């Protein structure tokens, strides 16, 4: 009877732990989704405004040098835009690499649970050997 009661308590504890971790995962996933949506919205707005500004700036430079250095002006603007795009991509990649992985808090809690259970099982076996 003692084994059944202990097994029932362990099963209830495990079910409670799994439920808590699933709730944490759902909350964390929802927060990550909202943050990502915000990043995407602001990025699209920035891209739209930057494209308009860059187009007007390029047209201004090309018009300014139309009579003398039109090909050099077009080439210079292309090189400038390419360099700036490369810098922006490197910055975005660095920012994405610096963020915590998806569901990191949930995974950390699951690791803690596994360590706790291993510790509890090790102590129960050690206690059973002494009896």
Automatic annotation (TrEMBL):
Per UniProt, which keywords does this protein have?
Membrane, Transmembrane, Transmembrane helix
Q: Which residues cross the membrane?
A: 40-65, 71-90
- Alphabetical list of InterPro entries matching this protein: Phage_holin_3_6 (IPR009937)
Give the protein name, as stated in the record.
Phage holin family protein
Organism, scientific name: Telluria antibiotica
